[in-house]
Specification:
This protein has 409 residues and is an alpha/beta fold. Helix content is 41%, strand content 13%. It folds into 2 domains: 135 residues, Aspartate Aminotransferase, domain 1; 244 residues, Aspartate Aminotransferase, domain 2. The C terminus is likely disordered.
Length: 409
Protein backbone atom coordinates (compact mmCIF):
# COMPACT_ATOMS: atom_id res chain seq x y z
CA UNK A 1 0.00 0.00 0.00
CA UNK A 2 1.40 3.38 -0.98
CA UNK A 3 0.13 5.19 2.11
CA UNK A 4 -0.47 4.37 5.77
CA UNK A 5 -2.92 7.20 6.23
CA UNK A 6 -6.49 6.08 6.99
CA UNK A 7 -9.52 8.17 6.02
CA UNK A 8 -12.97 6.76 6.75
CA UNK A 9 -15.65 8.15 4.42
CA UNK A 10 -18.30 5.45 4.72
CA UNK A 11 -20.40 6.73 7.63
CA UNK A 12 -23.62 5.80 5.85
CA UNK A 13 -22.57 2.15 6.17
CA UNK A 14 -21.71 2.45 9.86
CA UNK A 15 -20.20 4.91 12.30
CA UNK A 16 -17.45 4.44 14.90
CA UNK A 17 -18.79 4.21 18.44
CA UNK A 18 -18.50 7.50 20.31
CA UNK A 19 -16.36 7.10 23.47
CA UNK A 20 -19.17 8.73 25.48
CA UNK A 21 -21.55 6.08 24.21
CA UNK A 22 -19.14 3.25 25.04
CA UNK A 23 -18.65 4.65 28.55
CA UNK A 24 -22.41 4.70 29.12
CA UNK A 25 -22.90 1.08 28.04
CA UNK A 26 -19.89 -0.53 29.74
CA UNK A 27 -21.43 -0.92 33.23
CA UNK A 28 -24.26 -2.95 31.68
CA UNK A 29 -21.72 -5.43 30.34
CA UNK A 30 -20.19 -5.91 33.79
CA UNK A 31 -21.68 -5.10 37.20
CA UNK A 32 -25.15 -4.05 35.97
CA UNK A 33 -25.79 -7.26 34.08
CA UNK A 34 -29.39 -7.99 35.08
CA UNK A 35 -32.17 -9.25 32.83
CA UNK A 36 -34.62 -6.39 32.36
CA UNK A 37 -37.54 -8.81 32.73
CA UNK A 38 -36.47 -9.97 36.21
CA UNK A 39 -38.25 -8.55 39.26
CA UNK A 40 -35.26 -8.43 41.64
CA UNK A 41 -32.85 -5.52 42.11
CA UNK A 42 -30.52 -6.50 39.27
CA UNK A 43 -33.39 -6.86 36.85
CA UNK A 44 -35.06 -3.62 37.87
CA UNK A 45 -31.75 -1.77 37.55
CA UNK A 46 -31.57 -2.99 33.96
CA UNK A 47 -35.26 -2.15 33.42
CA UNK A 48 -34.62 1.40 34.57
CA UNK A 49 -31.78 1.74 32.05
CA UNK A 50 -33.98 0.46 29.21
CA UNK A 51 -36.76 2.86 30.16
CA UNK A 52 -34.32 5.78 30.21
CA UNK A 53 -32.96 4.81 26.80
CA UNK A 54 -36.51 4.55 25.48
CA UNK A 55 -37.14 8.14 26.53
CA UNK A 56 -33.88 9.27 24.91
CA UNK A 57 -34.63 7.57 21.59
CA UNK A 58 -38.17 8.94 21.67
CA UNK A 59 -36.76 12.41 22.31
CA UNK A 60 -34.69 12.26 19.12
CA UNK A 61 -37.85 12.04 17.01
CA UNK A 62 -40.38 13.83 19.24
CA UNK A 63 -42.29 10.65 20.11
CA UNK A 64 -43.76 9.28 23.33
CA UNK A 65 -41.57 6.68 25.02
CA UNK A 66 -44.33 4.04 24.87
CA UNK A 67 -44.30 4.36 21.07
CA UNK A 68 -40.74 3.00 20.81
CA UNK A 69 -40.10 -0.71 20.23
CA UNK A 70 -36.47 -1.84 20.63
CA UNK A 71 -35.12 -4.27 18.04
CA UNK A 72 -31.82 -5.55 16.64
CA UNK A 73 -31.42 -2.88 13.93
CA UNK A 74 -32.93 -1.09 10.97
CA UNK A 75 -33.57 -4.21 8.91
CA UNK A 76 -35.64 -5.80 11.65
CA UNK A 77 -37.46 -2.51 12.16
CA UNK A 78 -38.41 -2.36 8.48
CA UNK A 79 -39.50 -6.00 8.53
CA UNK A 80 -41.63 -5.57 11.65
CA UNK A 81 -43.17 -2.37 10.31
CA UNK A 82 -44.15 -3.73 6.90
CA UNK A 83 -44.88 -7.38 7.59
CA UNK A 84 -46.36 -6.64 11.01
CA UNK A 85 -48.70 -3.95 9.71
CA UNK A 86 -49.71 -5.95 6.64
CA UNK A 87 -50.56 -9.05 8.64
CA UNK A 88 -52.64 -6.96 11.04
CA UNK A 89 -54.69 -5.21 8.33
CA UNK A 90 -54.73 -7.90 5.61
CA UNK A 91 -58.54 -8.29 5.72
CA UNK A 92 -58.83 -4.67 4.49
CA UNK A 93 -56.54 -4.94 1.45
CA UNK A 94 -53.34 -6.38 0.00
CA UNK A 95 -51.81 -3.48 -1.89
CA UNK A 96 -48.59 -1.62 -0.92
CA UNK A 97 -47.10 1.51 -2.45
CA UNK A 98 -43.34 1.96 -2.12
CA UNK A 99 -40.52 3.58 -4.10
CA UNK A 100 -37.93 2.25 -6.52
CA UNK A 101 -35.03 3.48 -4.36
CA UNK A 102 -35.79 1.86 -1.00
CA UNK A 103 -33.19 0.09 1.13
CA UNK A 104 -32.75 -3.59 0.34
CA UNK A 105 -34.52 -4.57 3.58
CA UNK A 106 -37.68 -2.80 2.39
CA UNK A 107 -37.31 -4.14 -1.14
CA UNK A 108 -36.78 -7.63 0.23
CA UNK A 109 -39.85 -7.75 2.46
CA UNK A 110 -42.01 -6.31 -0.34
CA UNK A 111 -40.75 -9.03 -2.69
CA UNK A 112 -41.53 -11.67 -0.07
CA UNK A 113 -45.07 -10.36 0.36
CA UNK A 114 -45.45 -10.23 -3.41
CA UNK A 115 -44.76 -13.96 -3.55
CA UNK A 116 -47.61 -14.41 -1.09
CA UNK A 117 -50.05 -12.64 -3.39
CA UNK A 118 -49.69 -9.02 -2.30
CA UNK A 119 -49.55 -6.37 -5.01
CA UNK A 120 -46.69 -3.86 -4.89
CA UNK A 121 -46.58 -0.52 -6.73
CA UNK A 122 -43.03 0.82 -6.98
CA UNK A 123 -42.94 4.54 -7.68
CA UNK A 124 -40.21 6.14 -9.81
CA UNK A 125 -37.76 8.58 -8.26
CA UNK A 126 -36.82 10.47 -11.45
CA UNK A 127 -33.48 12.10 -12.18
CA UNK A 128 -33.36 14.07 -8.94
CA UNK A 129 -34.07 11.00 -6.80
CA UNK A 130 -37.29 12.32 -5.27
CA UNK A 131 -40.69 10.62 -5.32
CA UNK A 132 -43.60 12.76 -6.51
CA UNK A 133 -46.65 13.06 -4.28
CA UNK A 134 -48.88 13.05 -7.36
CA UNK A 135 -47.55 9.61 -8.23
CA UNK A 136 -48.55 8.42 -4.77
CA UNK A 137 -52.00 9.90 -5.24
CA UNK A 138 -52.53 8.31 -8.65
CA UNK A 139 -51.38 4.91 -7.32
CA UNK A 140 -53.86 4.77 -4.43
CA UNK A 141 -56.52 2.08 -4.63
CA UNK A 142 -59.39 1.06 -2.41
CA UNK A 143 -57.33 -1.92 -1.22
CA UNK A 144 -54.13 0.06 -0.49
CA UNK A 145 -53.19 -0.45 3.17
CA UNK A 146 -49.58 0.75 3.37
CA UNK A 147 -47.30 3.36 1.84
CA UNK A 148 -43.61 2.83 2.65
CA UNK A 149 -41.24 5.55 1.44
CA UNK A 150 -37.91 6.24 3.10
CA UNK A 151 -37.29 9.63 4.71
CA UNK A 152 -33.81 9.96 3.19
CA UNK A 153 -31.99 7.71 0.77
CA UNK A 154 -28.94 5.81 1.97
CA UNK A 155 -27.00 6.07 -1.32
CA UNK A 156 -27.72 9.56 -2.66
CA UNK A 157 -29.10 11.27 0.46
CA UNK A 158 -32.25 12.71 -1.14
CA UNK A 159 -34.95 13.69 1.34
CA UNK A 160 -38.41 12.49 0.40
CA UNK A 161 -41.69 14.47 0.82
CA UNK A 162 -43.00 12.36 3.72
CA UNK A 163 -44.89 15.23 5.29
CA UNK A 164 -46.77 15.83 2.02
CA UNK A 165 -47.51 12.12 1.62
CA UNK A 166 -48.85 12.06 5.19
CA UNK A 167 -51.13 15.00 4.37
CA UNK A 168 -52.46 13.04 1.39
CA UNK A 169 -53.19 10.07 3.65
CA UNK A 170 -55.08 12.30 6.08
CA UNK A 171 -57.24 13.49 3.20
CA UNK A 172 -57.95 9.89 2.21
CA UNK A 173 -58.85 8.97 5.78
CA UNK A 174 -61.20 11.94 5.99
CA UNK A 175 -62.99 10.52 2.96
CA UNK A 176 -63.52 7.18 4.66
CA UNK A 177 -60.29 5.26 3.90
CA UNK A 178 -59.52 4.31 7.50
CA UNK A 179 -57.09 1.46 6.84
CA UNK A 180 -54.25 3.32 5.12
CA UNK A 181 -50.94 3.70 6.96
CA UNK A 182 -47.56 5.35 6.33
CA UNK A 183 -44.16 3.86 7.16
CA UNK A 184 -40.84 5.62 6.62
CA UNK A 185 -37.33 4.25 6.92
CA UNK A 186 -35.46 7.01 8.80
CA UNK A 187 -32.29 5.03 9.46
CA UNK A 188 -30.11 7.47 7.47
CA UNK A 189 -32.05 10.59 8.39
CA UNK A 190 -32.23 10.29 12.18
CA UNK A 191 -29.64 12.44 13.90
CA UNK A 192 -28.89 14.24 10.64
CA UNK A 193 -32.08 16.21 10.09
CA UNK A 194 -34.64 17.34 12.69
CA UNK A 195 -37.47 14.83 13.04
CA UNK A 196 -40.77 15.43 14.83
CA UNK A 197 -43.08 12.52 14.15
CA UNK A 198 -46.21 14.56 14.83
CA UNK A 199 -45.20 17.09 12.18
CA UNK A 200 -43.94 14.38 9.84
CA UNK A 201 -47.26 12.54 10.09
CA UNK A 202 -45.97 8.97 9.74
CA UNK A 203 -47.46 5.99 11.57
CA UNK A 204 -44.31 3.85 11.66
CA UNK A 205 -40.65 4.95 11.54
CA UNK A 206 -37.48 2.83 11.55
CA UNK A 207 -34.22 3.68 13.34
CA UNK A 208 -30.78 2.10 13.78
CA UNK A 209 -28.18 2.70 16.48
CA UNK A 210 -24.99 2.13 14.51
CA UNK A 211 -25.69 5.06 12.20
CA UNK A 212 -25.60 7.31 15.30
CA UNK A 213 -22.13 6.46 16.69
CA UNK A 214 -23.41 3.55 18.79
CA UNK A 215 -22.41 -0.12 18.39
CA UNK A 216 -24.19 -2.42 15.98
CA UNK A 217 -27.02 -4.63 17.17
CA UNK A 218 -29.72 -2.20 18.31
CA UNK A 219 -32.55 -0.52 16.46
CA UNK A 220 -36.04 0.77 17.08
CA UNK A 221 -39.43 1.11 15.49
CA UNK A 222 -41.71 4.01 16.27
CA UNK A 223 -45.33 2.82 16.32
CA UNK A 224 -47.86 5.61 16.62
CA UNK A 225 -50.42 5.08 19.38
CA UNK A 226 -53.44 3.24 18.01
CA UNK A 227 -51.56 1.54 15.15
CA UNK A 228 -51.81 -2.24 15.41
CA UNK A 229 -49.02 -4.51 14.21
CA UNK A 230 -48.48 -8.26 14.49
CA UNK A 231 -45.31 -9.21 16.36
CA UNK A 232 -42.81 -11.21 14.32
CA UNK A 233 -40.77 -12.55 17.26
CA UNK A 234 -43.10 -14.48 19.55
CA UNK A 235 -42.67 -16.40 22.78
CA UNK A 236 -42.23 -13.59 25.29
CA UNK A 237 -43.92 -10.48 26.64
CA UNK A 238 -41.05 -8.06 25.98
CA UNK A 239 -41.68 -4.78 24.14
CA UNK A 240 -45.43 -5.11 24.79
CA UNK A 241 -45.40 -8.42 22.92
CA UNK A 242 -44.39 -6.72 19.70
CA UNK A 243 -40.85 -8.14 19.85
CA UNK A 244 -40.28 -11.14 22.13
CA UNK A 245 -36.80 -11.84 23.46
CA UNK A 246 -34.53 -10.68 26.26
CA UNK A 247 -33.62 -7.04 25.73
CA UNK A 248 -29.99 -6.35 24.79
CA UNK A 249 -29.55 -3.86 27.61
CA UNK A 250 -25.97 -2.67 26.83
CA UNK A 251 -26.84 -1.96 23.19
CA UNK A 252 -30.10 -0.27 24.13
CA UNK A 253 -28.33 1.95 26.67
CA UNK A 254 -25.75 2.86 24.01
CA UNK A 255 -28.54 3.62 21.54
CA UNK A 256 -30.26 5.92 24.01
CA UNK A 257 -27.06 7.81 24.82
CA UNK A 258 -26.17 8.15 21.14
CA UNK A 259 -29.68 9.44 20.35
CA UNK A 260 -29.47 12.07 23.10
CA UNK A 261 -26.04 13.27 21.97
CA UNK A 262 -27.12 13.30 18.31
CA UNK A 263 -30.10 15.47 19.21
CA UNK A 264 -27.91 17.88 21.16
CA UNK A 265 -25.22 18.12 18.46
CA UNK A 266 -27.39 17.88 15.35
CA UNK A 267 -26.88 21.40 14.02
CA UNK A 268 -23.13 21.39 14.69
CA UNK A 269 -22.65 18.03 12.98
CA UNK A 270 -24.77 19.07 10.01
CA UNK A 271 -22.86 22.28 9.47
CA UNK A 272 -19.55 20.44 9.70
CA UNK A 273 -20.39 17.64 7.26
CA UNK A 274 -22.12 19.99 4.82
CA UNK A 275 -18.94 22.07 4.65
CA UNK A 276 -16.80 19.03 3.94
CA UNK A 277 -19.22 17.75 1.30
CA UNK A 278 -19.31 21.10 -0.51
CA UNK A 279 -15.52 21.29 -0.46
CA UNK A 280 -15.29 17.79 -1.91
CA UNK A 281 -17.78 18.43 -4.71
CA UNK A 282 -16.33 21.78 -5.74
CA UNK A 283 -12.73 20.54 -5.84
CA UNK A 284 -13.58 17.26 -7.57
CA UNK A 285 -15.53 19.17 -10.21
CA UNK A 286 -12.41 21.25 -10.88
CA UNK A 287 -9.87 18.45 -10.90
CA UNK A 288 -11.61 15.30 -12.14
CA UNK A 289 -13.29 15.37 -15.58
CA UNK A 290 -16.18 13.22 -16.80
CA UNK A 291 -18.17 12.98 -13.58
CA UNK A 292 -21.89 13.10 -12.83
CA UNK A 293 -23.37 14.07 -9.47
CA UNK A 294 -26.29 11.86 -8.46
CA UNK A 295 -29.41 13.06 -6.65
CA UNK A 296 -30.94 16.42 -5.88
CA UNK A 297 -28.34 19.20 -5.43
CA UNK A 298 -30.05 20.71 -2.38
CA UNK A 299 -32.78 18.47 -0.96
CA UNK A 300 -30.45 15.89 0.56
CA UNK A 301 -28.63 14.93 3.73
CA UNK A 302 -25.60 17.03 4.56
CA UNK A 303 -23.07 14.20 4.75
CA UNK A 304 -23.61 12.23 1.51
CA UNK A 305 -22.14 12.86 -1.92
CA UNK A 306 -22.70 10.31 -4.69
CA UNK A 307 -20.65 10.72 -7.85
CA UNK A 308 -20.50 8.62 -11.02
CA UNK A 309 -17.15 8.44 -12.82
CA UNK A 310 -17.36 7.80 -16.54
CA UNK A 311 -15.17 5.07 -18.05
CA UNK A 312 -14.37 3.58 -14.61
CA UNK A 313 -15.78 0.57 -12.78
CA UNK A 314 -16.79 1.73 -9.31
CA UNK A 315 -15.44 -1.44 -7.71
CA UNK A 316 -11.99 -0.81 -9.22
CA UNK A 317 -12.05 2.77 -7.97
CA UNK A 318 -13.14 1.65 -4.51
CA UNK A 319 -10.28 -0.88 -4.29
CA UNK A 320 -7.75 1.65 -5.54
CA UNK A 321 -8.86 4.17 -2.93
CA UNK A 322 -8.75 1.49 -0.24
CA UNK A 323 -5.13 0.74 -1.15
CA UNK A 324 -4.44 4.41 -0.45
CA UNK A 325 -6.15 4.16 2.95
CA UNK A 326 -9.49 5.72 1.95
CA UNK A 327 -12.74 3.90 2.74
CA UNK A 328 -15.76 4.67 0.53
CA UNK A 329 -18.67 2.66 -0.88
CA UNK A 330 -20.20 1.80 -4.23
CA UNK A 331 -23.67 1.79 -2.64
CA UNK A 332 -25.53 0.31 0.29
CA UNK A 333 -23.36 -1.86 2.56
CA UNK A 334 -26.23 -4.35 2.69
CA UNK A 335 -25.87 -4.84 -1.08
CA UNK A 336 -22.08 -5.13 -1.19
CA UNK A 337 -20.70 -8.10 -3.04
CA UNK A 338 -23.20 -7.93 -5.89
CA UNK A 339 -21.92 -7.28 -9.41
CA UNK A 340 -25.19 -5.69 -10.45
CA UNK A 341 -25.27 -1.91 -10.94
CA UNK A 342 -26.86 0.03 -8.09
CA UNK A 343 -30.67 -0.12 -8.43
CA UNK A 344 -30.86 3.32 -6.83
CA UNK A 345 -28.61 4.94 -9.45
CA UNK A 346 -30.39 3.05 -12.22
CA UNK A 347 -33.71 4.37 -10.88
CA UNK A 348 -32.45 7.91 -11.58
CA UNK A 349 -32.36 7.04 -15.28
CA UNK A 350 -28.59 6.53 -15.38
CA UNK A 351 -27.20 3.91 -17.77
CA UNK A 352 -25.32 0.84 -16.54
CA UNK A 353 -21.93 2.50 -17.01
CA UNK A 354 -22.80 5.41 -14.72
CA UNK A 355 -24.55 3.11 -12.25
CA UNK A 356 -21.52 0.83 -12.04
CA UNK A 357 -19.18 3.81 -11.84
CA UNK A 358 -20.88 5.44 -8.85
CA UNK A 359 -19.14 6.04 -5.53
CA UNK A 360 -20.77 7.16 -2.28
CA UNK A 361 -18.71 9.41 -0.03
CA UNK A 362 -20.31 9.83 3.40
CA UNK A 363 -18.74 12.10 6.00
CA UNK A 364 -18.80 11.93 9.78
CA UNK A 365 -18.38 14.27 12.70
CA UNK A 366 -14.65 13.52 13.03
CA UNK A 367 -13.62 14.01 9.40
CA UNK A 368 -11.48 17.04 8.60
CA UNK A 369 -10.68 19.43 5.76
CA UNK A 370 -7.33 17.67 5.49
CA UNK A 371 -9.18 14.42 4.83
CA UNK A 372 -10.94 16.04 1.87
CA UNK A 373 -7.68 17.39 0.51
CA UNK A 374 -6.04 13.98 0.72
CA UNK A 375 -9.06 12.33 -0.89
CA UNK A 376 -9.13 14.70 -3.86
CA UNK A 377 -5.38 14.36 -4.44
CA UNK A 378 -5.63 10.58 -4.47
CA UNK A 379 -8.91 10.51 -6.41
CA UNK A 380 -7.64 12.69 -9.26
CA UNK A 381 -4.51 10.57 -9.63
CA UNK A 382 -6.24 7.20 -9.35
CA UNK A 383 -9.11 8.14 -11.68
CA UNK A 384 -6.68 9.25 -14.38
CA UNK A 385 -4.73 6.01 -14.09
CA UNK A 386 -7.81 3.78 -14.20
CA UNK A 387 -9.20 5.61 -17.21
CA UNK A 388 -5.94 5.24 -19.09
CA UNK A 389 -6.30 1.47 -18.74
CA UNK A 390 -10.05 1.16 -19.05
CA UNK A 391 -11.66 -0.63 -22.02
CA UNK A 392 -14.66 1.63 -21.35
CA UNK A 393 -12.64 4.70 -22.31
CA UNK A 394 -12.63 5.35 -26.07
CA UNK A 395 -9.57 7.62 -25.78
CA UNK A 396 -7.61 4.90 -24.02
CA UNK A 397 -8.59 2.35 -26.63
CA UNK A 398 -7.71 4.69 -29.49
CA UNK A 399 -4.22 5.21 -28.07
CA UNK A 400 -3.65 1.45 -28.06
CA UNK A 401 -4.44 0.94 -31.76
CA UNK A 402 -1.41 0.28 -33.90
CA UNK A 403 -1.19 1.00 -37.64
CA UNK A 404 -1.83 -2.06 -39.77
CA UNK A 405 1.37 -3.47 -41.28
CA UNK A 406 1.69 -5.25 -44.62
CA UNK A 407 3.72 -8.44 -44.53
CA UNK A 408 6.34 -9.30 -47.14
CA UNK A 409 6.32 -12.47 -49.20
Amino acid sequence: MSSTRRVYLDHSATTPADPRVVAAMMPYLTERFGNASSVHFFGQEARGAVDRARREVAGLIGARSNEIVFLSGGTEANNLAIRGLCEAVEPHGRHIITSSIEHSSVRGICEALEKRGWEITRLPAYEDGIVKVEDVRSSLRTDTVLISVMLANNEIGTIQPIQEIAALIRQERAQGCKHLWLHTDAVQAAGRIPIEVEQLGCDLLSLSAHKLYAPKGAGALYVRRGVRISGQNVGGHQERERRAGTEAVPGIVAFGTAARIADEELSVRNSHTAGLRERLESTVAERVPDIVFNGHPDRRLSHISNISFRFIEGQSLLISLDLEGIAVSTGSACSSGTLEPSPVIRALGRNDELARGSIRFSFGKDNTVADVGYLVDVLSRVAEKLRSLSPLNPKAMASRRFPQTVGRD
